[in-house]
C-alpha cells in the first residue's frame, strides 16, 4: 500500500471515529445489544482455535497477549493520548480494513475517549508495551453508520492493539 493511501485511510478512520464519539456518561450501550453478535464472535474464535479468551461484561471478547509493564496505577485514562500499533479486521470476511502497518500512531494526538468504545475498553486492560486482541461487536466499533468505503455498517471487528505509550 502506498504511503499516500495509508495516510488517507488513517485520516478517514480518525475522522469517522471522532464522529462516532460517545460522551463519557453514555460510553457503552446496553450489553444486551452486544449479544446480537456474540454467536459471530464465538464462531470466529472457534474457527481460529483461539484459547483463553475472556468476555468483558460489555459483551466484548478479548485476549491479553502481553499485559505490558508498569504498576497497576499506570493504566491509560480517558484523557491520555495512546500511541499504538493496530490492525482492524472484519470478522465476516476476515479482510484487513485498516492497519498502522507496524508504524506507531497517536492519531494526531487524539485522546482515548475519542476512539471507538471497544478500544477504550481494551486498552485499559493492558499497560505500556502490552498487546491485546479484541473481538468487538459493531455497537462498540462503528455501529450502524460504518465508515463509507472502509468499514461496512454493523460490522463486528477483530483488532490487535499494541500500546506503545500514553
From TrEMBL:
Which PROSITE patterns does the UniProt record give?
FKBP_PPIASE
The EC class name is: isomerase
Reaction(s) the record says it catalyses = [protein]-peptidylproline (omega=180) = [protein]-peptidylproline (omega=0)
What InterPro entries does its record include?
PPIase_dom_sf, PPIase_FKBP_dom
Q: Where is the PPIase FKBP-type domain?
A: 79-166
Q: What Enzyme Commission number(s) does the record list for this chain?
A: 5.2.1.8
Q: Single GO molecular-function term?
A: peptidyl-prolyl cis-trans isomerase activity
Which terms are listed as keywords in the entry? Isomerase, Rotamase
The similarity annotation says: Belongs to the FKBP-type PPIase family.
Query: Under what name is this protein listed?
Result: Peptidyl-prolyl cis-trans isomerase
Amino acid at each position: 500500500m502506498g504511503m499516500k493511501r495509508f495516510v488517507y485511510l488513517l485520516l478517514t478512520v480518525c475522522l469517522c471515529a471522532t464522529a462516532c464519539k460517545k460522551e463519557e456518561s453514555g460510553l457503552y450501550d446496553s450489553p444486551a445489544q452486544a449479544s446480537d453478535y456474540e454467536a459471530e464472535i464465538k464462531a470466529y474464535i472457534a474457527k481460529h482455535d483461539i484459547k483463553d479468551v475472556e468476555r468483558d461484561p460489555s459483551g466484548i471478547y478479548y485476549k491479553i497477549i502481553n499485559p505490558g509493564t508498569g504498576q497497576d496505577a499506570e493504566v491509560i485514562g480517558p484523557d491520555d493520548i495512546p500511541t499504538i500499533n493496530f490492525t482492524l479486521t472484519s470478522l465476516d470476511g476476515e479482510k484487513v480494513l485498516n492497519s498502522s502497518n507496524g508504524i506507531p500512531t497517536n492519531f494526531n494526538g487524539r485522546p482515548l475517549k475519542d476512539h471507538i468504545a471497544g478500544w477504550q475498553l481494551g486498552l485499559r486492560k493492558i499497560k505500556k508495551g502490552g498487546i491485546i486482541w479484541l473481538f468487538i461487536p459493531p455497537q462498540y466499533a462503528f455501529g450502524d453508520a460504518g465508515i463509507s468505503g472502509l468499514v461496512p455498517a454493523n460490522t463486528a471487528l477483530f483488532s490487535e492493539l499494541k500500546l506503545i505509550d500514553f
